[in-house]
Specification:
Layout lengths: L1 H15 L2 E4 L13 E4 L18 E2 L2 E2 L1 H12 L3 H10 L6 H11 L3 E4 L5 H9 L4 E5 L4 E8 L3 E5 L8 E4 H9 L5 E4 L12
Antiparallel strand pairs: 1-2, 3-4, 5-10, 6-7, 6-10, 7-8, 8-9
Amino acid sequence: MKRIILTLLVLTCVGCSQDYYEWPSDGPDKPDTTPVIHVVKERPEVNPPAAIRQENWVSNGSGSCVHATMITLLRWQGRYKMADHWRTTYGSGETADDLAAKMDREGIRYAYTYGEEDTTFLEWACSTRRGCGVTCMGGSHCIALLHLDDKWACLLDDNDVSKYKWVPRERFLSEWRASNSWAFAVIYAPAAPLPPSK
């Protein structure tokens, strides 16, 4: 009976976390042995479920990519009420200064960089599991950066939120630098931190 309860507990844990457990095969003589924990690293680090990804929409004749990205990032950090308010209040094209003014007006905590080619900002936003909006296509489009490591960048394009796009790091950074190197992040509690790697 004790072994059945233990097995059910292990199965429950596997279903709700990024870890899985492997019990040592010492046989039934040692029921109190400690499990070996294997850590599975989540990729991308910011991984918003499909249900909270906001698609781009047309407002006043232009796309609302900055606002769509903003809404996804707000939802990812549990700010659903503000995300809904943002969706019904703002739309159309956006500049760095105008977005900052809107976030100030709404009392949103944020950080951003513009024209500085500040890759440490991008790495910070991803490593803290907040993610950030970044410009591309010469500054005419905004998408979400969800992961940045020494080899890869993971992007979520609000024109197609059904899938992530993985691109080589240097290719992404080159495009971002050629697009005014604008990036913004909302700063609330990110998703729970990933467990430490082995």
